[in-house]
């Protein structure tokens, strides 16, 4: 099983993108700092929680406002996970394109997902905190 989408033209001599060159590959690669690396690892851990909580209620992934093009980009769970892992291994983000005709109702922002997870956590721990204080 792959963590990211498989390139349908991988190894195909007739690959239509074979002649394209990504100019960013010529740039000197600055590895992620320890802080950046830790942030990406935390994002991956958070993503697992968000998917576990939100996928069962129909959320397909996250929407991220692109800083480059100022457009929302819709990422399903697996694609976003693959992009974060790629960033960890290569030190650079993947080239991205907006999803084709996504339904915005099926995607939420990182902030929404974080708030939802926090709300679930608070609800689950609400009764245990009261029980702990009555034991004292």
Automatic annotation (TrEMBL):
Organism of origin = Micromonospora globispora
Where are the stretches annotated Disordered? Answer: 1-34
Which taxonomic lineage is given here?
Bacteria, Bacillati, Actinomycetota, Actinomycetes, Micromonosporales
Entry protein name: DUF5319 domain-containing protein
Tell me where on the tree of life, at the top rank, the source sits.
Answer: Bacteria
């Amino acid at each position: 099983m792959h963590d990211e989408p498989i390139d349908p033209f991988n190894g195909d001599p007739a690959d239509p993108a074979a002649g394209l060159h990504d100019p960013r590959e010529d740039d000197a690669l600055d590895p992620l700092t320890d802080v950046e690396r830790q942030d990406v690892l935390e994002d991956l851990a958070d993503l697992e929680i968000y998917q576990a909580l939100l996928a069962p209620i129909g959320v397909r992934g996250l929407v991220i406002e692109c800083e480059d093009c100022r457009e929302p980009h819709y990422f399903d769970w697996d694609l976003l996970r693959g992009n974060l892992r790629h960033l960890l291994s290569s030190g650079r983000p993947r080239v991205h394109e907006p999803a084709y005709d996504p339904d915005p109702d099926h995607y939420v922002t990182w902030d929404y997902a974080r708030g939802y997870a926090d709300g679930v956590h608070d609800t689950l721990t609400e009764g245990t905190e009261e029980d702990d204080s009555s034991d004292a």
